[in-house]
Amino acid sequence: MHPRRLLSVCVLPMALVLLAGLARAQAPQQDPQDTASEPALELPTGEPLDLSTPEPDEIKGAKPDRAWIDHLLQRVGLGGFGSKFPRELSGGMQQRASIVRALALKPSVLLMDEPFGALDSFTREEMNRLVEEIWLDRPTTIVFITHSIEEAIFLSDRVIVMSARPGRVAREYQVPFARPRSLEIMATKEVFDLQNAIKLDIVGGRTSQMQAPLRSAVAAS
Q: What's the pLDDT band for 53 if we cut at 50, 70, 90?
């Protein structure tokens, strides 16, 4: 996978489990929580939002890079909030903290399952811009699950549309627009046409699936 790719996919969370190597396709396991999607950052011990806590870094057997964590906190506008509990932060601040926690490990691949789905539209757009800015500053491969076509186009180099059960790759779209993706770029006819093409693929696939049982019933009669 290209180390500078942002990839959006419309799939079930199980796809992230398979990508992470935590389950086999023929024997799926319970979905784990991916770091960037879960805003509740309070540790099981009840400790506050100290992102330099070794807990996540123990996974990699490395000491926490406090300078990098402090840089990330400043980068997302959370400087001075490292000792706060999640309940003391707003929803948007919790999502920013989730991004910091995920990036604190300096991952080569980051799996994000609809991390901003519960946010209002303005905060969601702000988080999308933040993800792009951080990605431009430190490129890494991101697999981003979303049901928002606009979000997929804004963030991604490639958009993969998945079919309904059984989930398969229905279509792949290249997103050729320059970065950073400004509001002016997102308002162009080219973006509008790509968004409509993806939407038609999704709607067309759902329509075909709904019509299939009807055709089978008619054939059986």
A: very low
